[in-house]
Design a protein that fits this description.
single chain; alpha+beta; 2 domains
């Protein structure tokens, strides 16, 4: 015997709710419920991400403007050669003239 058991309390399609018990007792605390909620949300998010395929996982697709304004993409030890604070202001003016969607640009 492993000392861990799961008792099904309710099922709805593929979703299940139950009680997890160990040799030390049943695990049902607010902290454990918060952990389970966060874990389930993360799992659902990963499944949705995977459904987008490889292209949907590319950083410029996921992070949009943040990726475009980042330091990545430059050779090691070589960064931008301009005042980085200027670029967001230039982009703001560009958006006022013609909006773009970063993830598809």
């Amino acid at each position: 015997m492993s000392g861990v058991s799961f008792r099904l309390v309710k099922a709805d399609g593929a979703a299940r709710a139950g009680r997890l018990s160990t040799i030390h007792g049943e695990i049902d605390t607010p902290a454990f419920r918060a952990f389970l909620k966060k874990a389930a949300e993360a799992f659902v998010s990963r499944v949705k991400d995977a459904a987008g395929g490889v292209e949907g996982q590319m950083p410029w697709k996921k992070d949009g403007e943040k990726w475009h304004l980042g330091e990545k993409g430059f050779p090691a030890g070589v960064g931008v050669k301009w005042d980085r604070s200027l670029l967001p202001r230039v982009i703001k003016v560009m958006f006022e003239v013609t909006p773009i969607v970063w993830a598809t640009a």
